[in-house]
Amino acid sequence: IKNYALSEQENKELFQLYYSTIQMVREIIAKYLNCSITGLDMKHFSIIIPLEEAAFYGEILSFALHKTFLMVQNYFNVTILTSVGSLCKSPFQIAQSYQDARQIASLATLEEPILFYDLLKEAAPDRNAFNLSLFKDGIVRAFDELDTKSLKEIFEEIISLFAANPIHYLQAMDAASNI
Q1: HSE of 109 in the Cβ direction (CA atoms, 13 Å)?
Q2: 143-164, pLDDT tens digit by residue?
Q3: Burial class (CB in 10 A: 0-12, 13-18, 19+), 132
Q4: 76 with 17: CB under 8 angstroms?
């Protein structure tokens, strides 16, 4: 990803900072918990942490994330704001947990940098969540029937929803990725 407002050198430095931050998060959090980290774009990444027991998971995660993010802040002067999705009992629930975390991500602040969906369900901004499944049948039908006119109308409706309801960059990326 390139930010054209920056010079080539500044873009390289930005990428190196992002990459180094993820590496440091991976190394530090591994001292506390087993995890997988996936970069999403130049500002976002996700962490999947398999837990053996659900008891006290909030305390365990909060401690590990606070320690990790404090080290990153001290070393790179990078502040990480995060949200934790709902607890999963099966790997098949990871996608829903990810969406749960995304719903509350905008509520994270410098004062409260780590948020848990299970504690904030009621405060989650459902109205800002984009649900592509509402368009799935029409998209599938348009593709199956090679109906470009219907497909264009569906995409125009999606575009108008995004234009009428300014939502987060990542939700638009999710929609585009899922199509």
Answers
A1: 3
A2: 899 999 999 999 898 888 777 7
A3: middle
A4: yes
